[in-house]
């Protein structure tokens, strides 16, 4: 059996691969991380950020260890997970079935990671990435980042119009990615359900997926659309 290990942090973007691994019933070693003084480190204190850099030179999460190889960057991580599914056909369907669907999945993932995540939430939460220690510029960076976030959510809402999931009537890895962005919207003070009705309708379906439910519970997040029992 292929040895799989996921380095992740509760509530971070690593939620998506965490949920996908659960959804596809892939056995893996769960390695919770925390944000330490110098960067991500083991949540249980078993290794430092410096030691994590020797495992994953980017220093971020998620990182997926497959045997002796490390896979990083969200599109690559989600793609790798789909290829590891015990039910291989089921896993690959989550990457799209037709050539156009496969291309559309890549398009979604590239934009979500490169624009909404990096320029939007990256700029809002970590303005120092763009202007280093020029604290006087942080406000301007965050203001611009919020515009990127809201424009991104508007684009998502428009693309989800009349759809159950991002690509239509069946889930793909895109939906696992969209779920944590919805949560992040609330974290930066956006009233998501009031502003983005198509997004909300789709996410209600996504939250019913078993892998999403399991990851939500394991990360201690709580579901948005259904009461806890």
TrEMBL record:
InterPro entries: Glutathione-S-Trfase_C-like, Glutathione-S-Trfase_C_sf, Glutathione_S-Trfase, GST_C, Thioredoxin-like_sf
Domain GST C-terminal: 98-225
Stored SUPFAM superfamilies: GST C-terminal domain-like, Thioredoxin-like
PROSITE patterns: GST_CTER (PS50405)
Pfam families per UniProt: GST_C
Similarity comment text for this entry: Belongs to the GST superfamily.
UniProt name for this protein: GST C-terminal domain-containing protein
